[in-house]
Design brief:
It is a single chain. This protein has a domain of 161 residues: Rossmann fold (3-Layer(aba) Sandwich). It is 26% helix and 24% strand. A five-stranded antiparallel β-sheet has the order 1-19-20-21-22, with no helix packed on it. Strands 5-4-6-7-8 form a five-stranded parallel β-sheet, with helices on both faces. Strand 13, helix 10 and strand 14 form a beta-alpha-beta unit. The protein is globular, with a radius of gyration of 23 Å. 42% of the residues are buried.
């Protein structure tokens, strides 16, 4: 085997990095693991953990743990028990990840839903997930059917209304609505939070697919998977870039999606980063937030990158603080990656694979840029120059995938051979529990598509 590339005579690329290890303790929940990192460091007690980009409201790391326990205690008083399913029907908010942590810390199961979903889609997910408790805002209550089947309804205060009760009354004039204000949960004594025994293999979340190929389907995600995602983010990606003294992450990706929930909502907080949360997307608002809060890490999706790269969009803004751009959901083309690099001269550009699967997150630096681009600019996560192409190790449950079978052919796109294009079929096999799984990935014109 070539110890520089990992390529063997049998045609298999083997990972050369040290394997990451999972915690050995069988009884361990994602919240305890999260606060075992920098999030629980007393030296960061006065550092902002979550900041509302619009209002400036914030929670420090010192307040974060107390708030999680207060909400957990309040939920327990409402009847939430280990194994209960609690639906979060919210847009992005500094309280979204806090609510998620509070629910999972007492062994209950979270199911998240896109606020733009229809009444039918929400009702279907409630039935399928056996939701018994709902946390939402008054403006979305009218989209929820079967409120009478719920054991508890919690409404977050609406900043534009004098009170949550007034907003709820406005939205439900003809209905008698029994609910608990979220402020009551925040005021609960944190010492009353129940202590439960949670195993890594217990279910933490039940997230649903978008229904692209049919009806939306629920995906069981364990505490172990969220723990693995935190390990991946901490140890897998950081070796490829220089971290600033204190990282400020833009929380723009929806928390109801696994990308936002697992990374910004868990991993970045465990790493001690400040997450600046945007409740909605606007290109101007986004650039103003980056400039105001000196954002260093920018998790995005390709349409946002495309919007940022339009002529003149960024000219009036200082984005020099951005040192890392993580793009997920779909691959970036070579041309768009080059344009993005020109707009963010100080940033390393990574591509992130996030899947609704038992692995939760496969975070890898994809072969997203051709050899010619790689030779020109080493800031991209691309191939070593002595290889035909790169497979920067993917991660599964915190363990580097050991073997990647590659079959492909290359051809030159010009007579001069200035650019090499690849057509590759990857078959990545791993062992998940007792079940072997195989996924196929396609790569054309220098871009890798996710399974």
């Amino acid at each position: 085997m070539d110890w520089r590339s990992g390529y063997g005579t049998d045609g298999i690329y083997r990972n050369l990095r040290t394997k990451l290890s999972m915690p050995k303790a069988a009884e361990l929940d994602l919240v305890t693991f999260l606060f075992s990192g920098k999030a629980g460091d007393p030296q960061l007690a006065n550092t902002a953990a979550l900041v509302d980009a619009e209002t400036g409201e914030q929670l420090t790391f010192g307040e974060l743990g107390v708030t999680v326990r207060s909400i957990a205690a309040g939920l327990a008083e409402l009847g939430v028990r280990q194994g209960s399913t609690v639906m979060i029907l919210l847009g992005n908010s500094i309280f979204f990840p806090v609510i998620f942590m509070a629910i999972t810390s007492i062994g209950a199961v979270v199911t998240t839903v896109n606020p733009l979903n229809t009444r039918y889609e929400i009702a279907k997910q409630m039935r399928d997930s056996r939701t018994r408790f709902l946390i939402t805002i008054p403006q979305l209550v009218s989209k929820v059917e079967g409120l009478e089947s719920l054991l508890g309804l919690i409404l977050l205060e609406n900043p534009s209304s004098s009170s949550v009760a007034a907003a709820a009354a406005e939205e439900n004039k003809n209905n008698k609505l029994s609910f608990t204000p979220f402020s009551k949960l925040l005021a609960t004594n944190p010492d009353k939070a129940p202590r439960v025994r949670i195993r890594q293999t217990d279910t933490a979340a039940l997230l649903y697919s978008s229904g692209t190929t049919g009806a939306s389907k629920g995906v069981v995600i364990t505490h172990k998977s969220f723990i693995a995602a935190q390990i991946i983010a901490a140890d897998g990606i950081n070796e490829f870039r220089d971290l600033p003294p204190h990282e400020v992450v833009l929380g723009l990706v929806p928390f109801f999606h696994v990308f936002g929930l697992a990374l910004m909502g868990c991993a970045d907080l465990r790493a001690g980063a400040t997450v600046v949360v945007m409740s909605k997307f606007g290109i101007v608002e986004m650039l103003e937030t980056i400039q105001k809060y000196r954002v260093t890490s920018l998790p995005v999706v390709p349409p946002i990158v495309l919007a940022l790269c339009r002529p003149g969009v960024m000219d009036a803004y200082d984005v020099s603080s951005v040192s890392n751009i993580a793009c997920g959901a779909a691959p970036l083309s070579k041309e768009l990656t080059e344009r993005c690099a020109a707009k963010f001269p100080n940033a390393t550009i990574n591509q992130v694979g996030v899947y609704l699967s038992s692995s939760l997150v496969s975070r890898s630096l994809f072969l997203s840029v051709s050899l010619s681009l790689c030779a020109k600019d080493r800031r991209f996560a691309t191939t070593p120059l002595n290889m035909d192409f790169v497979l920067v190790s993917m991660l599964f449950l915190g363990i580097w995938i050991d073997r990647v079978y590659v079959h492909g052919n290359k051809h030159h796109s010009s007579e001069q051979g200035q650019e090499t294009r690849l057509e590759i079929e990857l078959r990545i096999c791993w062992l998940a529990g007792e079940h072997a799984r195989s996924y196929g990935c396609g790569c054309r014109d220098g871009s890798l598509s996710s399974p």
